[in-house]
Amino acid sequence: MESTYLNCLALFGVGGAHPGGLNLTKRILSKEKIDGSSKILDVGCGTGQTSAYIAKEYGSHVTALDNNKIMLEKAGRRFQSMNLPIEIRHGSAENLPFENHTFDFILSESVTAFTDVSKTVPEFKRVLKPNGVLLAVEMVRDKDISGQQMKEILDFYGVKQLLSEQEWRSAFQKAGFEQIEMEKVELQPDIQQVGVSNDYSLSKQIHPSFYEIFEKHHHLSIVYKDILACGKFRCTV
Ligand SMILES: C[S@@+](CC[C@H](N)C(=O)[O-])C[C@H]1O[C@@H](n2cnc3c(N)ncnc32)[C@H](O)[C@@H]1O
User: Fold this and answer.
1) Is residue 48 a contact partner of residue 79, using CB atoms and an 8 Å limit?
2) Is the beta carbon of 135 within 6 A of some atom in ligand 1?
3) Which atom of ligand 1 is nearest to the CA of 71?
4) Does the domain spanning 5-236 belong to CATH 3.40.50.970?
5) Rounded to whole angstroms, how far apart are CA atoms 95 and 122?
6) What is the mean pLDDT of each run of 10 residues along the chain (237 residues)?
7) 3-state secondary structure of 95
8) Is 92 near ligand 1, meaning CB less than 6 Å away?
9) How much distance in Å is there from the Cα of 111 to the middle of ligand 1?
10) What residues does each domain of the chain span?
């Protein structure tokens, strides 16, 4: 297995691996009209902490999608142990395996930034119902940085781009979202919640190189704390 940051998250089985963790998720969801009839896609669901919370708390129809099989196995175990009827799908956010206008809400918690935004955001728009809502918590470039700094961040996290607030807004607008609300999220030093989560599901064997990735993530999140911000976006048509 490649020693990448995302594989590291999968092997450690970090739940709530997004800035703000489950507490932020709860706050975001509490402002929406969600009920038992809502159809919700948790895209890049990871180990399924958010999907499980929504299904349990709101009784909604939740679909949990990820392109990482280890993540999905761990999510599946979580849902089974909690007896939750969540649909699990293996697939890519860049090419979603759903019909047009399927979902009332899409949640992307630190996922879209890892994908090709020019493919993913139009996919969100396509599978959302016309009055659907995209809720995204994503990494935002808060300051101009050197080419070398940019390269270090892109290479380490395996992200395809590191967008500023304005670039995110343009990407959403280009895909047809007209109302875009954005709020900055106050971050802990550990931008992805990796070291501060209390929800882990460790794989049996983890090569030492993955512990080094964990440490490097922690180091970079301190080095780039004034550059890497986090934005909470709410996008509708
Ligand atoms: C930082 S983790 C966040 C996981 C989860 N949303 C959470 O908050 O715990 C990013 C997740 O996005 C998934 N991911 C990355 N690229 C993806 C893609 N193109 N399609 C689907 N999932 C993807 C990864 O496998 C990983 O589970």
Assistant:
1) yes
2) no
3) 27
4) no
5) 10
6) 95 92 95 98 98 98 98 98 98 98 98 98 98 97 94 94 97 98 82 74 94 93 91 97
7) strand
8) yes
9) 5
10) 5-236
